[in-house]
Amino acid sequence: MAKTPRIPIPIEVRKYVYQRDNYQCQSCGKPENFTQLSIDHIIPLALGGSNDIAVCTCMRYNRRGQ
């Protein structure tokens, strides 16, 4: 199966998700500086997900899902 190309999440969406999630990892609940957070798609883009369904995760949890 071909790998889905990465599409950068627009900065406006990133800012919105950080603020909406109160700069907290949505997996472990730990508050983080935005430099330690990543935006994670709840449903991977390869499976039909979109930027509309994304949450903040700390780097540890984001890497776990990859």
UniProtKB/TrEMBL annotation:
Gene3D superfamilies, sorted: 1.10.30.50
Domain HNH nuclease: 12-63
GO terms assigned for molecular function: endonuclease activity
Domain of life: Bacteria
Keyword set includes RNA-binding: no
Keyword Hydrolase attributed: yes
Entry keywords, A to Z: Endonuclease, Hydrolase, Nuclease
Pfam families: HNH_5
Protein name: HNH endonuclease
